[in-house]
Write a structure and sequence with these properties.
The complex is a heterodimer of chains A (116) and B (113).
Chain A (H helix, E strand, L loop, with lengths): L3 E4 L2 E4 L5 E7 L6 E7 L5 E8 L5 E2 L8 E7 L2 E6 L8 E8 L7 E3 L3 E5 L1
Parallel strand pairs in A: 2-11
Antiparallel strand pairs in A: 1-3, 3-8, 4-5, 4-9, 5-6, 7-8, 9-10, 9-11
Chain B lengths: L3 E4 L2 E5 L4 E7 L5 E7 L5 E7 L5 E4 L2 E5 L5 E6 L8 E8 L9 E2 L3 E6 L1
Parallel strand pairs in B: 2-11
Antiparallel strand pairs in B: 1-3, 3-8, 4-5, 4-9, 6-7, 7-8, 9-10, 9-11
The chains are: A mainly beta (116), B mainly beta (113).
Chain lengths: 116, 113
């Protein structure tokens, strides 16, 4: 149990285009999902907290218009990187909390984004 | 300075040796989570600690949270090459319901056969 998937696993796009990353909780409902960014050999940086049915809460320094988050259902949250630039290239990881089980965050496998 | 200090940054041990990774905070830890990550992959949940003095074990890995709830350690007994990877501690530094996690910088573990 507590499986989280992400799609796509890797994506290469041209500068200026938008990219959507999906995060799904496969066997549980997640009222809260989190989006992180990880640079090479660095720790995870929380970008935003995604709450089902409401607006996401962004961390300081994260542009909400740049990184659009939608949590339309209890099993799906999406992160859209709008007008991507090379500096947006990174490893993006989502996590989901299973309130019925415990407060543990279960992580997806990550999405590697490369913007050319 | 980081809110969560993890040490050592990297560790190379011979197979069969024991090792310890530490995670320290200046704030109270309302929940402490240990994860393992292979480079370029997601995080695998290992253990969660919440109560002061709590200790949990799974196979050859033991995690402890001190009584003051400001320091946690992860101990691996008789390490194997399969234990290699990046170990991350994540902490809930507030008692809020959102339970956002702050992560340590990670420990890169290499186990030599």
């Amino acid at each position: 149990g507590a499986v989280v998937s992400q799609h796509p696993s890797r994506v290469i796009c041209k500068s200026g285009t938008s990219v959507k990353i999906e995060c799904r909780s496969l066997d549980f409902q997640a009222t809260t999902m989190f989006w992180y960014r990880q640079f090479p050999k660095k720790s995870l940086m929380l970008m935003a907290t995604s709450n089902e049915g409401s607006k996401a809460t962004y961390e300081q320094g994260v542009e909400k218009d740049k990184f659009l988050i939608n949590h339309a259902s209890l099993t799906l949250s999406t992160l859209t990187v709008t007008s991507a630039h090379p500096e947006d290239s990174s490893f993006y990881i989502c996590s989901a909390r299973d309130y019925q089980r415990d407060e543990t965050q279960y992580f997806g496998p990550g999405t590697r984004l490369l913007v050319l | 300075s980081q809110e969560l200090e993890q040490s050592p940054q990297s560790l190379i041990v011979q197979e069969g040796k024991n090792l310890t990774i530490n995670c320290t905070s200046s704030k109270t830890l309302y929940g402490l989570y240990w994860y393992k990550q292979k480079y370029g992959e997601g995080l695998i949940f290992l253990m969660m600690l919440q109560k002061g003095g709590e200790e949990k074990s799974h196979e050859k890995i033991t995690a402890k949270l001190d009584e003051k709830k400001q320091q946690s350690s992860l101990h691996i007994t008789a390490s194997q090459p399969s234990h290699a990877g990046i170990y991350l501690c994540g902490a809930a530094l507030s008692s809020g319901s959102a339970r956002q996690l702050t992560f340590g910088s990670g420990t890169q573990l290499t186990v030599l056969p």
